[in-house]
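Next comes this protein:
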Amino acid sequence: MNKKQLEKTIKKHEAIVEETSKAKVEALVRARRAEFWIKENSEPYNKLIKRYNEVSDIIKGLIEIKNLPLWMHVYAHVNIFLEDPIKYINGRPKVKSRLVKEYWGFKRIKKEWEDDFKFTESKIEEDYKYVDDATKFIENHKKLLERGRTILRKAKND
């Protein structure tokens, strides 16, 4: 390999190292932004999970109430009716259907957020893996470039 070819090759590989370094920094920035996004959205997600669990527990309680004896049902309904008859007549039929709608709405939103978090975490892992691979690649290329420069200096001195 003559001097000109070696110089061209060194310049070409320096450009490759530079491009890889830029891509590495971009991957690090993407990963950190994704981590911040997860951190920012974990609080609303936890509130959603809490509300979802509350609605789920209420529905489980309603299902368990069905297994109680008839006299307990009568007693409970009479007490609720005596407390607020208008609310009992107007609100009671709608409560179960509203709870079920809320449950499925929360479940759908919870699933979407879980999918978003999983996708984001997988992208973070990919970015960090790319950063590790790029770091190794850059180190190896810099060693090779240093060898090439050493050979070029020796060739110029001769």
Observations:
- The chain has a mean pLDDT of 87.
- Helices lie at 3-65, 70-83, 85-157.
